[in-house]
Known about the structure:
Chain A is an alpha/beta fold. Chain A is built from 30 helices and 13 strands. Chain A folds into 4 domains: about 1-215, Growth Hormone, Chain: A, CATH 1.20.1250; about 220-275, no CATH class; about 290-550, Vaccinia Virus protein VP39 (Rossmann fold), CATH 3.40.50; about 580-810, no CATH class. The longest helix of chain A has about 35 residues, at about 585-615. In chain B, about 35% of the residues lie in helices and about 25% in strands. In chain B, helix 2 (about 30-45) packs antiparallel against helix 4 (about 60-65). Mean pLDDT of chain B is about 85; it is low at about 1-10 and about 20-25. Chain B: Belongs to the methyltransferase superfamily. L-isoaspartyl/D-aspartyl protein methyltransferase family.
Amino acid sequence: MxxxxxxxxxxxxxxxxxxxxxxxRLLSIIQWHHFAYMMISVALLGxxxxxxxxxLARPVLAPRFHGVFIGGAVLFGLSAIACFSLAQQVPFxxxxxxxxxxxxxxxxxxxxxxxxxFFCAAVCICLTFTCFQExxxxxxxxxxxxxxxxxxxxxxxxxxxxxxxxxRLLGGTGIAAGALAGMACTGHRRWLAxxxxxxxxxxxxxxxxxxxxxxxxxxxxxxxxxxIKDARAIAQTWSPLGLLTVVDSPTIPxxxxxxxxxxxxxxxxxxxxxxxxxxxxxxxxxxxxxREPLAYLxxxxxxxxxxxxxxxRVLVLGSGAGADVLQAIYHNASAVDAIELNPQVIDLxxxxxxxxxxxxxxxxxxxxxxxxxxxxxxxxxEPYDLIQIALLDSFGTASGGLHALxxxxxxxxxxxxxxxxxxxxxGLLAITRWVALPPRDVPRLLATAAAAIExxxxxxxxRRIVMIRGWKTATLLVSNRDFDDAGxxxxxxxxxARSFDLxxxxxxxxxxxxxxxxxxxxxxxxxxxxxxxGERAEFLARYKFDVRPxxxxxxxxxxxxxxxxxxxLLALKAQGGLSMLEWGYPVLIATLLxxxxxxxxxxxxxxxxxxxxxxxxxxxxxxxxxxxxxSYFAAIGFAFMFVEIAFIQKFTLFLSHxxxxxxxxxxxxxxxxxxxxxxxxxxxxGIGAGVGPRHPLARPVLAxxxxxxxxxxxxxxxxxxxxxxxxxxxxxxxxxLVAPLAFAMGMPFPLGLGRVSARAEALVPIAWxxxxxxxxxxxxxxxxxxxxxGFTVVLLLALLLYLVAAVMFP
Amino acid sequence: xxxxxxxxxxxxxxxxxxLASAGLHADDPFAPLRDAMVRExxxxxxxxxxxxxxxxxxxxxxxxxxxxPRHKFVPPDEVPYAYENRPLPIGYGQTIxxxxxxxxxxxxxxxxxxxxxxxxxxxxxxxxxxxxxLAQAVYTMEIIEPLAVQAGERLGxxxxxxxxxxxxDGYHGWPEHGPYxxxxxxxxxxxxxxxxxxxxxAGGRMVIPVGAPFMIQYLLLIEKAGxxxxxxxxxxxxxxxxxxxxx
Lengths: 810, 247
């Protein structure tokens, strides 16, 4: 063996990380996002298992390094495609998991299938560390640089390729990594590299389309809509933001008008449905410039603010296919700015289906702004009379609690304060949500709005909020002035004419609360009364769902779960009580438990084996060293992930898009950590152990703590200062800010591993496996901690762990 | 849950299979399972007392639940679970609701012997069969063609002559046979179709379950008063007070 196949290693590492990102996309299309997250977390433990496998089979594998590497890379490429295809064949239905024991077995089968490609790739990487211990710094640098480039490349590729073609591509790059490694082969194996290169192109391209065609769950909205007679998908576009499908149902009209008043006599006009990842229906109304066909838009709860304002200047957040823009046009808004995240949705409305849609975004005085709502709101100079937040999520996913794990920066105290700042005097912030029973999102909105209004201690929220409800939607209005009697009279009349119920206005009595759509109790009014009075704290404590205000630091708007309520909800299962259980959180806990148990098994199994051998040799010192090794690599594994995840979150608002934040921040972390690793290797080599600092970790850990703490304090004002900067420049600023932190964070791993290889080289794969397994658990744990304690605490914990690592340095 | 009940529940599928294979020798080997299901539902039936004024589901509803062979309405591989109180998949992305919810919805419609009932969303045909045990005539519509065909054949085969099933868009109802004493809408709807309200008799009741597949969140009960005015009620299928020590 002469030198490690560094380029092949980098390509394989890039393919494996790209595969992880792509799987999340693929599984989100066929299942739901949080189950995708759960499956991948467990599958990633293939990395940990590879550490164990290499530790145990080292004598067999190490002498055959090249063969194993080439074989592992090729197997990764093949299994990346094959295992996804097979996993799709497993008839797993997550919606039945609490009813049907068979589903758990099917889920396990999916885990095992998706585990295979990660295991194959990781065996190659881990074996490289084990066989070329003198070059650990270089190997780590190439490994992590490859991963950084891979995560960026797959996001870029998803703009051009369908998710399925991206899967073929990654299968190909995996095999190509094998071919690269094969170039080192000489003699009678010289044919191997060209042959594998040909296979890298031919095999993925030759896989029949029907084997890997996506087959989404039949319970997703898109699948259900396509069951309707003559309904068909008439267009499909994709990007990393999602797969958009446009559906036309010519025989049986869609007639989508969520929560339409029973007093409405008009039907919606002809509509097309736009689904994102097979869910999240947004309708495209036929519009020919006439107002009459849009009359139904006045019979939704969201029409209320237009009755309180005259020709308002409107800002619509999350305008999608444009129904809320049409609602503003119908109500004679003097100007409409519409913010939409996904440019492809706008393209469908404005270009592809322009004849049908009547190009609402080109109507007089309408402007469309593309990007993340918070960032764009912050950058607006002019005031608005109305900021309208549409129903962005579908009813199905909202009622299943499927968003519990997603961060949401639209509904936080900080966001509301920002919106209120952008309102003209007497302007309104209007938020419409689905009605859930018992109420969950609505009380949280109230609590969040109240906290935003009262933040500066100047105003009382009780006089600045009104709320109405239909049987399916509720609309909350927040003003920067007190509501007056004239306004309340309009509110009453609006509700009377549409048989909507008053849920709250300043001075309202309980007798008015439950007139048209009867509830067991006037829950919404009671919640509002309590939350907008001195009883707020008591209500939040006594309520069986967590409806505390959300903040930018703890942005989990859809997390309503309280452990205390779990036994009661489970006991009510037979009566349909599970619909009150928010799914996302229990799934997160299940994911954490599963991956922890699996990780412990993967770590303990080889240690137990190793310890048995030590007992024979009675080497107590080695046993202690082993404990230090495990603690050290666990600590830096947790710490690295915590810092990375906390900063991805911190940069989300600045980069105005969660996807950009993940791609740019993650890549920057990996690439600069890779450079840090290279540097630490040179330092060690150049200066020598005796001349360097007393504790090798002192400088990196001090640097990490200092920079992270500085950012914690300095980033928010810095981001405000940089508000006018354009998107591309923001990417550069983000990378520059991540660079020094990541550079320092790239050092502890190779420094530690170098020490391990010098003292007990048999422990190298174990150290690697511990670190890999812990990273997976840490990703899940970081979300859990952020839900409860916020991202700042996650970051502080990470710094503490780096200090622990410094103490435990092997 | 008591250990014996737990054991019974675990063993139920096995017992069901054994009974099914022994079915040649018995009139209705599933009867004991069906009785057990009905007893379980009866124990939970006080939830609608505010809406119906009764502390338990009406006796005719429970008799219908005890009579209709649910196992004949589910796909073959779900037969062992037919009498468990849980929703089951019936293909085409549709489900057969859990028996407790079927009983609850039926009870809320307050269907009597002389009533004419419309159902939107035939699905397996099970709900129509239950309604047929109570009403004079049941008209049921299904938008998904294979399900409509299957359910029509099944109801005919099982002798439910009172049920007329057809394929079609439920939004406009089935005006030829209306107005109806009760309407059940088990298909997903973003809003209540005005034509259905028009086809509801004065004094009639309409029930719409709201939620995602396998997850019914609440039932919307629409009542049309004698003067034609319409009111709605949201009924939680469970007794649940969201505020500890209050509410």
